[in-house]
Amino acid sequence: MQSFMLIGAVAIVLLIFPTLYRMIAGPSVFDRIIGGNMIGTKATVLLLFIGVLFNNVSMFVDISLAYALLNFIGTLAAAKYFQHRPSGTSGGEGSAKEEARP
Prior knowledge:
By secondary structure, the protein is mainly alpha-helical. The protein has 4 helices and no strands.
């Protein structure tokens, strides 16, 4: 069981790297926000794997739930901020309304 959890934890860490690339080089701000949210979700799962590896799941479940809640609230706040920002401060990427047009 320990080796399975260790392999799963290593796989989660390796899967963070493509998401980190999407977060850094995303074509829009919302791609970057989703990339950050995905990294936070994978970190939450990684905390649970660590809890199983250290035989202290109850403590790590509490920590991972708090981290997941903060990740969710942060993602909502960032999305709401970037949705309502003026188009003049877009940094060359266009506003959210321009990106939504087909």
